Amino acid sequence: MRLLIGGMTAIAIALGLACPGQAQEKTNLSITRQPGILYLASHVMETQKLIEKEAAAEGLAGVTVEWRTFSGGGAQTDALLAGNVDVVNTGTGNLLLLWDRTRGKVKGIITSSAQPVIMVSNDPRIKSLKDIQAGDKIAVPTVGVSTQAILLQMAAAKLYGDDQVKKFDPNTVQLGHPDAVAAIANSQHEVKNHFSAPPFQYVELKQTGVHKVTDSREILGGALTQATFFTTTTFADANPKLVKALRSATEEAVAFIKKDPKAALEAYKSVSGDKTSLHDLLAMLKEPGMDEWRTDPQGTMKFAEHLHKVGTLKSMPKAWTDYYLPDSAYLNGN
Q1: CB 172 within 8 A of CB 149
Q2: What angle do CA 268, 272, 275 make, to 5 degrees?
Q3: How many CB atoms lie within 10 A of CB 297?
Q4: Using one digit for the tens of pLDDT, what is the confidence trace for 263-278?
């Protein structure tokens, strides 16, 4: 486990994460996200100013929202604990780690996607994870704590036994998805495998010689929440209207994506600058599992059980509601 998280926990306590009521009601909100269409709801929320609208409906006028893009979840969670951002939008693993390390002072708000993430390779020798050898490099967003890194641990335990849960850890290298795509496109690059995410995985699979190795559904046996909004309980307690507005805005954005995926992708392209054609992006949304735009947490307890079994989580939650805010309990997750 990254030592930085432990260090940041101490900083977080010093900053008052454990002392609800210190924060003042805010009208400016800073939210992080990562690249890719897993975070499509956030692009709709940004372009349509849905949080601002919902906040006004709650009687909180003049709200401004700053959206910040990070290449990996680790940097996002560090920024949250340092007090540099208010809300993080990243994977389940990072939420669980911070919930555990801060003794419940970081909790989820709502989710927006549960699409599969795919590991690809341009190495003809590597057809499955059983073909991974010492020296084979696998790009992941954040070593050790990203969704992809944890999925590799779960796969290792299934293939080789619980005592080999970290068998693939030495193979992982930290690369943001856009950089990993460039690596996979270069046959001379030392990184020949990428545990990817939409849309990057589909861009890579269209390249000559690139093929699927495994995916999250094969490893987990079902859907897994990807984009999760979470924050500190201090922030949530001090800003209930903003948190409610964010939750309502996410539900509205998910409904919009299902109703008009083309318009949603146009919002994504306008914000992200992704040069992938609208036609290709729409085709990606028709890939298996890519219609899983949902606000209820999926597969999160399976993640928690794994992380607790290998000692990453000191505390085992009794239910998914333990690491989500009380007002989120209606989401009916798992």
Answers
A1: yes
A2: 90
A3: 27
A4: 999 999 999 999 899 9
